[in-house]
Write a structure and sequence with these properties.
By secondary structure, the protein is α/β, with parallel strands linked by helices. It folds into 2 domains: 3-60 and 368-406, Urease, subunit C, domain 1 (Roll); 62-355, TIM Barrel, CATH 3.20.20.140. It is built from 15 helices and 17 strands. Strands 6, 7, 8, 9, 10, 11, 12, 13 and 14 form a 9-stranded parallel beta sheet that branches. Strands 1, 2, 3, 4, 5, 15, 16 and 17 form an 8-stranded mixed beta sheet that branches. The radius of gyration is 22 Å and the shape is globular. It starts with a strand and ends with a helix.
């Protein structure tokens, strides 16, 4: 069924914003973009339903290209020891106190809550990496069902490694393959992927096994890459190789590769990533949390690498993520010219969709009708010269009124699932309390 959408400002993509423009939607895609007057005429002639947002700003929905839904359980969790390094963060805190204890029930509750949180800040699509090597069989598929029921577009994956054992790593790979096949047959919105961890938790043969699995299933291969200096320094000292060089040797880099973090990649590695068309996800805020450093994102973008934005499950308000990407690199490079707002907007939309392997993040003809409606609550006027700065730098999740995914209204701020979210919040409080008690008791 065709319907018309009218906008005060229509942000088509990172290069084009039109005043008093809108579009027609058909079968979940943008059919045509036209001036509002023309859309009203066509709607009257053809009896199309009209969504009138002429006092609002419409733009493509945001894409969170790296998320850990379960990570919300750690918010406010105090490590029982002082964390002095990235290695200590993983080995003394994150793995024993969180990852190894995540169950199916944790996953279902955190996924619903953080997906609602994501919708509230305009996120329409999520690449989630579940880090729960001891969770029950089938957890990944059940997680995907929650996201599908909410109407979200998502990729679900389970991190696989040899950290616990080779047998456990293969079990996790199998869970990924099961999810890929399940959603390929049953869903238009949810997909699976193959996810591994790092070169220091996965041996060469295990990485090659994951590469084969992703290739056989036609799926994305995801891994964390050089989140701090720990990984490249360790690999260099042991094998005189950089992580990107090793992944290249193992055949892991191509247009279906998504490498997250990439904080400590050098010029040579950037060149390899660009040459192989690998994609990258950038987490500006969580990189600060673990003291990993500042990723060379401007250099990666200049090399032609597709770089999306992710929250890492840390601060999930995507306006905060965009604002951090806009500011951090300016301070780091002492330059106001890097990371202009329209480029950050492109990372949050079109590049993010490309990282996830689908055509989206734009509102041009033929693109997926994934868009958000924002009330014009900015204190200063929006115009064609400042609209990207207004959204990226001064936008707030409180401005988001509606979220549409594949042409379907999935979030209405005025009719949100407040009661369900409150129930999920209470459940999360109880779950996190029990986890923290186990941590303090040493269980």
């Amino acid at each position: 069924m065709m319907f018309a959408v009218l906008a005060g400002w229509l942000v088509v993509d990172s290069d084009r914003a039109e005043k008093d423009y809108g579009f027609l939607v058909s079968e979940g895609r943008i059919y045509r973009t036209l001036p509002n007057d023309e859309l009203l005429r066509l709607a009257a002639e053809n009896q199309y339903e009209v969504f009138d947002y002429r006092d609002q700003v419409l733009c493509p929905g945001f894409v969170n290209s790296h998320m850990h839904h379960y990570g919300v359980l750690s918010h406010g969790m105090v490590p029982k020891i002082t964390i002095k390094s990235f290695e200590s963060f993983l080995e003394d805190y994150w793995w024993p106190d969180l990852e190894n204890k995540v169950s199916l029930q944790h996953v279902l509750s955190t996924t619903f809550y953080t997906a609602m949180e994501s919708l509230e800040s305009g996120v329409v699509s999520i690449f989630d990496v579940l880090e729960a090597p001891l969770a029950e069989k089938g957890t990944l598929i059940e997680q995907g069902k929650v996201l599908e029921e909410m109407g979200m577009r998502a990729i679900v994956s389970l991190e696989s490694s040899e950290r616990i054992s080779l047998e456990n790593g293969r079990k996790c790979l199998s869970e990924n393959i099961d999810a890929i096949r399940y959603f390929q047959e049953s869903s238009n919105l949810i997909r699976g992927a193959v996810s591994t961890h790092t070169t220091f938790t996965c041996g060469d043969s295990f990485i090659e096994e994951a590469v084969r699995a992703a290739k056989n299933e036609g799926a994305i291969l995801h891994f964390h890459l050089s989140e701090s200096s720990f990984e490249p320094k360790g690999l260099l000292s042991k094998r005189q190789l950089l992580p990107v060089e090793l992944y290249s040797r193992l055949g892991a880099l191509n247009e279906k590769t998504l490498a997250s973090q990439c904080v400590k990649v050098n010029e040579k590695e950037i060149e390899i990533l660009a040459k192989t068309n690998a994609r990258v996800s950038h987490m500006p805020i969580s990189n600060c949390e673990v003291g990993g450093g500042v990723a060379p994102v401007p250099e990666m973008l200049a090399a032609g690498i597709c770089v999306g934005l992710g929250s890492d499950g840390y601060v999930n308000d995507f306006f905060s993520v965009m604002r951090a990407a806009f500011l951090i690199h300016k301070a780091h490079l002492e330059s106001t010219t890097v990371m202009p707002a329209n480029l950050v907007f492109k990372m949050a939309t079109e590049m993010g969709a490309k990282c996830m392997g689908y055509s989206g993040g734009r509102l041009n003809e033929g693109a997926a009708a994934d868009f958000i409606v924002m009330d014009d609550l900015w204190p200063t006027e929006i115009n064609s010269g400042n609209i990207y700065d207004q959204i990226v730098v001064y936008g707030k999740k409180e401005f988001v009124k509606n979220v549409f995914i594949a042409g379907k209204l999935v979030y209405n701020r005025d009719e949100s699932k407040a009661e369900a979210k409150r129930a999920a919040l209470e459940q999360l409080k109880s779950m996190s309390r029990k986890l923290w008690e186990q941590q303090n008791s040493g269980e």
